[in-house]
């Protein structure tokens, strides 16, 4: 019995030793900021990542953090849109249907309105009082499905199909880069894809731009307009159109079409125009961005008013089909000018920049998210007149994926 | 090692062998099992165990003697596996009932011989120069029952547990009357969680101390199951196929020749009987039908035929509580109770072997084939809001096998060879351009489309495997083992609805070879040591456009395992391994559907440290206790993980800096006399993200050093069983059992982020299972009834994916075995 007790003591001592080596990590809680700006933040990680919604009352100073703070969203790869004074949080669900959560802001805090179910879509845009969603196939012969969500009822009120197999006329499938309401039409620029096999997103037609024009709300195809001066307009999940106050629509081409995984377009990254009231490319307007910028290509842009766009660009060496450029510049489409923005962090310190940014459309200002390689993120205020960037609100614990305001 | 009573450490509690209903029934037939082979894996185990637990002292005197003999039963048949003890020396009789002590110090001893079902022999002998050095012993069969009951209720497996490795062995024979599959049985092991996405046949993910997926390897009788396909997996193999399941947590012994990194599960089918039939059928809720036939016949000349066949069928139409959306407007009706309507699963598998045993050229030579097929409907996506009504999968398996074993090629050298090749095909069928809701309503769209991704792609992995094992036992203290595992993979496929896909079909081929060398040494009864190394080389050919890219990767790993016995009741063990894992073929090539290939993956490397402790004691001989505790530390680098690809349409594997895990598990068991057993185990693991920089370009991660999300970190099981003998009639036994599963709540996403009240998580799971078993005629007829999820709790392993509601099962089993 004595040795039994002795053994028990050994055993307990060992177990105690084994189990006593844990440590807890405490987080500094930063109380939630109230405000009408909504920042969506993704903690950078390879797995188990959710987005967090943070609110702020100004974008030019202060600090926010996701540590113990922020409204957790179900997963990342979410897309956000504001319309009709509501904030829509949509899951990109890998082809599966998913829940869209809508919020409004009350007293500077996000308040959930409802959940409703939609498909995973690859393009969406506010049109009239609706949110138009389009699910785009990647396999040849399939049709795209569209859904109109009434933003008052927060329900799908209408749906239908679009033929994407025969749009290009070249035997390949059309994949919409984005959707845009232009006057009472929906403009849907697309790129041509093989939609097959090992080169599904590749094309044999890298040197054309197309826009499908649809009537709304019938979504009847009215016209396809084509331009061989550039490669396709926009990019996968990127809005390549900007509509000016006078109704003119400008389009950028990034020149990132690939064939067999290799960039194949011979056309430079450039900006073209569709004049107000027309559904044709204006053959008299062409702005070779690549030349104006010293060899760069546009990856994203945001229209801030007065003919000014804040553009993200990549150098020839950085060029990729999906990466957002970290070179920031101001393009004035009226004057066909490009100015590089100064005051951004050093390029070698930038991890990434946000591609869904906010502008009050004053012709001068945009607020752009920047994440540095040390993990800290900031909102930079871009001034188009001075072509300068100024560091503003600091966000800790993640990358800013979008900035919006209700 | 495949039989009861082998290699029990003398005098330990575990040695007081339990005699279960089944074992008691088997005792006579075991005599006929004399010449049955040992799988090489088991053979090595024997050697390891001898090394680790052999109580023989190194001969200190020159004047040692050889002493040998045989043990046979009163009807003249040899008894293999009987334990023979002379003083501190222990031997186990071989297939011919023979034992031999090579170096024994001449003096007077008490010799004792025990074997289940026989009266123990205990007599005094004197070993000396003038005494004869060979004695034949005859044991009398007992008619009374042995009174001792093993506290753990895992008698056969106790010795596996006592290896220097961090291993838990489950005695599957104890569960043969349950309706468990292998996965269900594993879920009751400390340190193991099997996470399922639904009912019978659903996808599973086994995690062992925090590692899961391809980090864990599965073996069937020591042969890797990597190439078996979906028709033969742990979620469809019934428990009756297995005799024992060994779970290696962390350091994996060399003789399981594979590049497991997080642990290994070895299903030991054994072949205890030369002539037997074991038939069972169960019926249960959700239209579930399962049957198993295991049979073997062996002639006196050594010709043998073995057959294992099993079938599972279920509609899995259990009720779930969901937010059902309106198919047209997308509006949710929260908390709707609906039946699953597209979740049928069935599989049918036959394993047949024909060959000879106990010939001069082979102890065993078997030619076999495994034929199988499965069909699975897919009800939901990764969330239950995604409902499908037509999408399904099929797979089949056509696998010829060869097994060859020969002992003592030269004295002390044993050879074991296994080979198989799987011609099976897998197919994913999603061609209905429909959208379903939870009530089974659907919208039919025009054109060619799908519910998720349109495909009928059918492919075969053409996977082959050859394992060779050589073991050489120099003497009682030293032995050596050499193993080689070669595997090949060459995927080919086509899609009948998209024939142009064939033109794009790329070369997808890998060859992998793992060479292992081991050395085992033990000095005395107190400690033992096992050193091993593995060299892995993998050659992969990845077709890219028009050229084939060939990559060759090689890694060298090594480890040691050691154990120390303070005394008979207290054992301490420790092991370390530098483990390597090569990227899997699926990870390199993708699967054409949901998984994109990454040919730039680097091998994954980890340091594994295990420390374990086993302690047992009894009070007044009727109250028996045992405690085992294991601690584990892992540090994995170039950890292979899955994430979404650039346009988020498929998963793709990548390397990450890694994760660490520091955790452990504790199990305590208790038994009272021979009618009550109870146990509880608890596992805790602290799995920490060690990825400091993430993304491209890399930025400092805010979740560096955070606990990994969506992995259970605290869980446990409890069980109580009562058994009553001779109920109603002599030889009829009744038992009642209860099992409890507890899984602590855990977060779906990173714990440190977001407002705590608004976070998504998997709630605490608490489920109760009960079972009742009545066996007649000493186990020839068995009737069991089970209720799973007694309290009808909403159970989730994966966020939002509900597991079955309360279910009832009834199982009938018939077992008979005959003398040849």
From TrEMBL, chain A:
A Pfam entry, by short name: DUF4374
Protein name, as recorded: DUF4374 domain-containing protein
Native source organism of the sequence: Pedobacter antarcticus 4BY
TrEMBL record, chain B:
Superkingdom, taxonomy of origin: Bacteria
Family: Belongs to the TonB-dependent receptor family.
Subcellular location: Cell outer membrane
UniProt key word Transport: yes
TM spans (from-to): none
UniProt xrefs under PROSITE patterns: TONB_DEPENDENT_REC_3
Pfam families: CarbopepD_reg_2, Plug, TonB_dep_Rec_b-barrel
One annotated GO biological process: siderophore transmembrane transport
GO terms for MF: siderophore uptake transmembrane transporter activity
Membrane topology: Multi-pass membrane protein
SUPFAM superfamilies (UniProt xref): Carboxypeptidase regulatory domain-like, Porins
Name of the protein: Outer membrane cobalamin receptor protein
